[in-house]
Amino acid sequence: MKDKPIMYKNNIKKEFHNSMNVYNGFEDKKMLYKDNNIRKKINMIINSNDFIYSKLVNIKIGDDIIKRKIIGIYGNNIVTIDKEYIPLDNIKDIYV
User: Fold this and answer.
1) Do residues 3 and 14 touch, judged by C-beta distance below 8 A?
2) Which of these, 82, 88, 5, lies nearest to 39 by C-alpha position?
3) φ and ψ at residue 89, rounded to 5 degrees
4) Are 41 and 94 in contact (CB under 8 A)?
5) Which of 9, 18, 22, 43 gives 20 to 30 Å between its CA and that of 58?
6) What is the H or E stretch that residue 39 is in?
7) 3-class secondary-structure state, position 9
8) Which residue has the higher pLDDT, 94 or 36?
């Protein structure tokens, strides 16, 4: 049997930060998004398969964490089911 030729592979020695780690489990309904873009996180929550009309999320504003049911984004604000507008500039983090 003939030996196959050795293929060239580039040795990558640096760490990449352009990918995203996503976790979704059926047992615990927490999703972990490692990304700093708040608008992208909200779009991922809204575009998920279990989002029908509203989704209960934890929103970190400053040092406080509030729980709200979001229904969408309008302009530069998150719209909640209670007709509350939360500016995206004030949000530090958002997760399910």
Assistant:
1) no
2) 88
3) -70, -25
4) yes
5) 18
6) helix 38-46
7) coil
8) 94
pLDDT in tens, 17-51: 666 655 555 545 555 545 468 888 888 888 888 88
- Bridge partner residues of 64 (DSSP): 61
- Show the tokens assigned to 10: 């580039």
C-alpha distances (whole Å) from 15 to each of 11, 45, 46, 79 are: 12, 27, 30, 37
In the chain, the amino acid numbered 57 is V
DSSP 37-94: -HHHHHHHHHTSTT-SS-EEEEEEETTEEEEEEEEEEETTEEEETTS-EEEGGGEEEE
Coil, strand, or helix at residue 47? coil
pLDDT(86) > 80: yes
Take residue 43 and report the two structure tokens written for it.
């779009």
Report which secondary-structure segment, H or E, holds 43: helix 38-46
Q: How many CB atoms lie within 10 A of CB 76?
A: 10
pLDDT of residue 59: 92
